[in-house]
Amino acid sequence: MNTVISWVPEELGADPSGAQGPLNGVRIGVKDNIEVAGVRSTCGSAYFADRMADRDAACVAALKRAGATITSTLNLAEFAVGVTSQNSASGGPVNPWDAGRVPGGSSGGSGVAVAAGVVDVALGTDTGGSIRLPAACCGVTGLRPSTGVLDMSGIFPVSAYFDTVGPLARTARQVRETFAVLAGSDVAGVDADNLRVAVPRPFVTDDVDPAIADAVGETVELLRRLGHRVVECPVPHSESAQDVVYTLVYSDLARTHAERLRDEPTRFQQATRERIALGLTISDEQRAAALRERDLFRAAMTDMFGEIDVVLTPAMPVDVPRLGGGETVVAQARRMGQLTYPWSLHDGPTLALPVGVHPSGMPIGAQLTAARLHEGTLLALAEQIQAHSEWHLRVPPVRVSSDV
C-alpha cells in the first residue's frame, strides 16, 4: 500500500517513562512532515530524501510520554500540499478500498494506515483539508483542531495562517483519547445533548453527488432521532473561501520553496512546480485582500456560532476520484476541497467521519464543525453518531489486521 516511508526503531519510538500512560500499547504513525528524532523526515519530497530529524516534534513527544509507540512515518503529498498524496520521493499511498482511486491528501498515508490496520492512530496535518479528505476517502475519522491549540513545533510548515495537526483513527473515541493527550486536557464528558445543528443547504445539495447528499440526509434524520434540532443556516462569505485559501497557501508555498526550486528544480515534482509558479504571481496586495476576507469570514463565524452549535456538511461533493482522472492538479484540488476550504478559514475545529457507502463501494464522509475550542462538542456528537451507526466499523478489502 506504500503507506509507510520509514519504520521507527523501537528504541526511538517509545519513552519508557510513559509505560503507564493513557495511550500505553497504542501504535501510532505520523505524517512524514512531523519529526521523530533519529528518523528521516522527507516531507514527501526528493529534495529532502536524506533529511534526518534531530528532535521529536512537540506532538510526538507528548504521545510518547503518554505511553504510545511511534511505529512509522507515513506517506504524504509533496510538502503536504495536494489532494492525491502523490510525491517525488516515494510515489503515493494506495487506497485500500480501491487501488485505482486516490487516498485523499495531503495526509493520504495517515488515512490509509488507519483504514488498513497498519496503525491504531495516525497523526496528520491539515491546511486546506489534509486530514478531512483522507478520512473521507479512506472511511476513517479525523479531527482538524482549532488553529493554535496544538504545538506545531517540529512540523514542516505549509501556511502559518491555516496549519493544524490532528489525529485520525477508526473511531471518534480513539480520536478523542489522542486529542486529549495532545491538548493536555480531557475532553470527555462534554454535554452534546439537544444541540442546534445547522445544515447549510447549498453545501449539501448544490453540485453534490446525489448519493453523498442522500447519506448526509440520513445523518440529519439520525440527529433528529437523537434529539438534536436541525436548522438551515447560510454560511456568510463562503463563496470566496477557496480563492482566499489558495492565495495565502500558494504564496506561502512560493516564499518557502522558491529558492530551493531555482537551485534544484528536478527534485520537485511537476505539480509542486506548478503550485510554486502560481504562488510567485501573487502580489502583496492580493495577500492583504485575502487576509481581510479571512477576517470577515471569521467574524461571521463568531456570529453564526452564537446562534447554533454545530454545522453539518459533506466532506467532499464527489465520489472518491480515480487516479489520473485528467484534471489539472489545481482543478482536482478545488473540486475535492470545495467543502473543506471554508472550514480552514474558520479558526475552530472540524471533524470528518464516515456516514455511508457510495454505489461505487467507496466510503462517504461528512464534516462536523463547531465554534473555536469546542472540540469536545464535535467529538461527543461524533461518538453519539457512531454509537447509532456502523459506518466506522466497515473495513476495506486490503487490511493488515481485523482488529478494531
TrEMBL record:
Keywords: Transferase. Gene3D superfamilies: Amidase signature (AS) domain. Residues 18-379 form the Amidase domain. GO terms for molecular function: transferase activity. The keyword RNA-binding does not apply. The keyword Glycoprotein does not apply. It holds the Pfam family Amidase. It comes from the Bacteria. This is Aspartyl/glutamyl-tRNA(Asn/Gln) amidotransferase subunit A. It comes from Gordonia namibiensis NBRC 108229. The lineage of its organism: Bacteria, Bacillati, Actinomycetota, Actinomycetes, Mycobacteriales.
